[in-house]
Amino acid sequence: MQLVTTNPTQYKMVDHDRIVDDTRYVLRVRDMPIDEKPREKLLKYGSSTLSMAELVAVLWGVGTRKEDVLEMSHRVLKEYGERAILYETDPMKLADALMIPKNKAYQLVAGLELGRRYFDKRGERPVFVRTSRQAWQYLSDMGMLNKEQLRGLYLNSRYQLVHEETISVGSLTSNVVHPREVFQPALERGAVAVIIAHNHPSGDVEPTQADLETTSQLRAGGAILGIELLDHLIVTKGGYKSLLENAP
């Protein structure tokens, strides 16, 4: 299980797993020295030297009239999260959540699917999530997101991760998070337990009333379906809080 580390003061992505904290200083491609432009850099030094944002920029080729391609790729990774975007399969969810053109969302999902199929053939080391802390370590990248996001980890009877899903992007309330959205992936993949997590961009790790109501609603819904809600985590830059471990 790999922990994602970040350095908020560093805007240039040297570590491929590092999340850019501030896109205000990202150079437009046209303003870059020729050897530093993503495509030229790939040609000269190889794909392994490119950051995630640069790889996405190469995949897209061009940006929009309002946004340079590298600016857009940095923003997309920052707002959605690198880990979450790697597992996303719904282009319309990306387009709506990130306000990017549909064709960009199609290209990104298709490119990521190619990578997933390659690694599926190679075989990946199984991930086991048995504790709240392990879940937080796996999802710690959520603490750097500037938009609230709800993710689910779906586990089999051995606590092995069988699926990860970004359930929603935006404010978390019991009115907008329906149990069906949380438990449908579990039913489709035969998962018997779920851990959900959402981030507080404000940095406040304490649960809101909406967080508590949502947790209660989902626990009841899971009990009816025979799928256990193991925990609900709040993730921030400074750490996490388990709502079930700290339940009164």
Q: Kindly give the count of domains.
A: 2
- Going by CATH, the homologous superfamily of the largest domain would be Cytidine Deaminase, domain 2
Chain-averaged pLDDT: 83
- Major sheet: order of its strands? 2-1-3-4-5
Q: Helix and strand string, N-terminal first?
A: HHHHHHHEEHEHEE
Which word captures the global form?
elongated
Strand content: 5-15%
Radius of gyration of CA atoms, rounded to a whole number: 19 Å
| CATH architecture title of the largest domain | 3-Layer(aba) Sandwich
CATH topology of the largest domain: Cytidine Deaminase, domain 2
Structural class: alpha+beta
The assembly state of the depicted protein chains is single chain
Task: Give the number of DSSP strands.
Answer: 5
Distance between the termini: 31 Å
User: What is the CATH class of the largest domain?
Assistant: Alpha Beta
> Low-confidence runs (pLDDT<50, min 5 residues)?
1-25
Q: Describe the biggest sheet?
A: 5 strands, mixed
Q: Summarize the amount of helix as a percent range.
A: 25-40%
Can you offer a commentary on this structure?
With 248 residues, the protein is of the alpha+beta class. 40% of the residues lie in helices and 15% in strands. The chain folds into two domains: 29-122; 132-242, Cytidine Deaminase, domain 2. Strands 2-1-3-4-5 form a five-stranded mixed beta sheet, with helices on both faces. α2 (52-60) packs across α3 and α8 (179-189) packs parallel to α9 (209-225). The relative contact order is 0.10. The model is unreliable at 1-25 (pLDDT under 50).
